[in-house]
Automatic annotation (TrEMBL):
Name of the protein in question: NAD(P)H-quinone oxidoreductase
UniProt-listed InterPro entries: ADH-like_C, ADH-like_N, ER, GroES-like_sf, NAD(P)-bd_dom_sf, Quinone_OxRdtase_PIG3
Species this protein is from: Nocardioides glacieisoli
SMART domains documented for this protein: PKS_ER (SM00829)
A Pfam family per the record: ADH_N
Length: 322
């Protein structure tokens, strides 16, 4: 089948479309004929050799897709061949077909096209699991998400706003700040010349922070937390090793958590997907949350898509179609 192959590790130019063996559906799995997939920052790390697939996962890059069910494995119920779906993957989305545990298969939410649906599973599952299942963001609480104009950020702003939080976010250009406001952010902070700590402290502190920067923002995030605040770190764009002021955490009775979605056991991912379908998809269907797509390009342009993500000028998601 057609799939993205890598000529070793390195820059975007190592990626091209080639031929690999097609997967078959194992017990409890379905095979999806892929219509579209989307680029995630983790894909660029995998390409560079810094983020190998978990044991048992395919080497083919791609953490999400949309398409039609092509094959049902033993024991699979509730789906039929031909159903239009989207799915959270451990890998393999940049290909004509992918096998996925049935618990990670979701219906296409109402109101979005099959192509648009490809850019929802990873961001919806990441934001739902970290902000709501782990950090328990409540209506009326102050929520800070860094990188509000990115894939994760655009979903986090919309979902937190729809569930009644007061949303603060950071972004790096006037256009991106404006996008964040248009998605519901009450406070969009230019991280080049404003101090998010001051803004949050003036407002009473952040109850929940979703952080993509890691070490670079660790100390400032802890300072920006409110009493009983919850900091959830999902990225290391600003480094992996930082210093944690435990005294500040003690005084605030605050917590710091870090999670990775990809390596979680299949039953945990299935529970997250159930939560997404129950809580996020109705908001997509109602129009309260919309997919934010920077651009859609054919799979053959995968190297250009990775370059675009690494240049950092994009907002929302970059979609690849088959
Ligand atoms: N742990 C997990 O399970 C998990 C799952 C999914 C994603 N992630 C992580 O989540 C992060 C976002 O992923 P994504 O796919 O949404 O990538 P993305 O679309 O490329 O977004 C990255 C964002 O980082 C922002 N950024 C860069 N420098 C910043 C700074 N100094 N302060 C604040 N924001 C800054 C960028 O904002 P500007 O363009 O405005 O500069 C951009 O919006 C990545 O680190 C990714 O690895 C983790």
């Amino acid at each position: 089948m057609r799939a993205v192959v890598a000529a070793g590790t390195g820059g975007p130019e190592v990626l091209s479309v080639g031929e690999v063996d097609a997967p078959r559906a194992g017990a409890g799995e379905v095979v999806i004929e892929v219509v579209a997939t989307a680029v995630n920052r983790a894909d660029t790390l995998q390409r560079q050799g810094f983020y190998p697939p978990p044991p048992g996962a395919t080497d083919t890059i791609g953490l999400e897709c949309s398409g039609r069910i092509a094959e049902l494995g033993d024991g699979v119920t509730g789906w039929s061949v031909g159903d239009e779906v989207c799915a959270l993957l451990a890998g393999g989305g940049y290909a004509a077909r992918v096998a996925v545990p049935v618990g990670q298969v979701m219906p296409v939410p109402g109101g979005v096209s099959l192509v648009e649906a490809a850019c929802l599973p990873e961001v919806a599952a990441t934001v739902w699991s970290n902000v709501f299942m782990t950090a328990h963001l409540q209506k009326g609480e102050r929520f800070l998400v860094h990188g509000g104009a990115g894939g994760i950020g655009t979903m986090a702003i919309q979902l937190a706003t729809a569930r009644g939080a007061e949303v603060f976010t950071t972004a790096g250009s006037p256009e991106k700040l404006e996008l964040c406001r248009s998605l519901g952010a009450a406070h969009a902070i230019d991280y080049h010349d404003e101090d998010f700590v001051e803004v949050l402290q003036d407002a009473g502190g952040a109850d929940v922070i979703l952080d993509n920067m890691g070490a670079k923002y660790l100390g400032r995030n802890v300072t920006a937390l409110a009493t009983a605040g919850r900091l959830v770190i999902i990225g290391m764009q600003g480094g992996a090793k930082g210093e944690l002021d435990i005294n500040a955490l003690l005084r605030k009775r605050a917590s710091v958590t870090a999670t990775s979605l990809r390596a979680r056991p299949v039953p945990e991912k299935a529970a997250i997907c159930c939560g997404v379908v129950e809580n996020v998809w109705p908001l997509v269907a109602s129009g309260a949350i919309r997919p934010i797509v920077e651009t859609t390009m054919p799979l053959e342009d995968v190297a250009r898509a990775h370059q675009l993500m690494e240049d950092g000028s994009h907002s929302g998601k970059i979609v690849l179609t088959l």
